[in-house]
Protein: Nitrogen fixation protein
Organism: Frigidibacter mobilis
Amino acid sequence: MQTGAIQTETMQPPRGGAMIDSPFLVQLAAVIRAEDSHGLWDTKPVAELLAEFILTAEERRQTPIIGDPDPDLIWRLTKFYDAVGLMIEKRTGCMASQMQKMHHEGFGRIVLIAGRLVVVSRHLRDVHRFGFETWAKLAQAGEALVEDAVAVIGTYPDAARA
């Protein structure tokens, strides 16, 4: 080995890419921390709390879509939409409650309702593969749902406050 030679290794980028500053990711982490009654997750970084939301394309391909979705995956899906509902409430003052019906084969529907108004309605397929390749895509997906719901509430405020 040469003196002063630089060892060149291919460094893997961090899982999910660089962490981004996003109100949605902060809210999602807060929703998860709320489940911790003993405070063990209080000091964990956001990236560690949300690590299971990151799913690479290779991991997605390797995930079987036969059989019941993993209960932990359903928990993550629920927490994602809980965070969307809380962000909607922060932006509009209207509480958005989640209802979901999931078939054991991994498809179903999630709605968020504010008052008498459906503000989010999503049909889900391949729930077994729920996840995002990057932090940016996770934040963008949540923030897009919030923006759409806020626009619906702005259009029909009386129904949302009923």
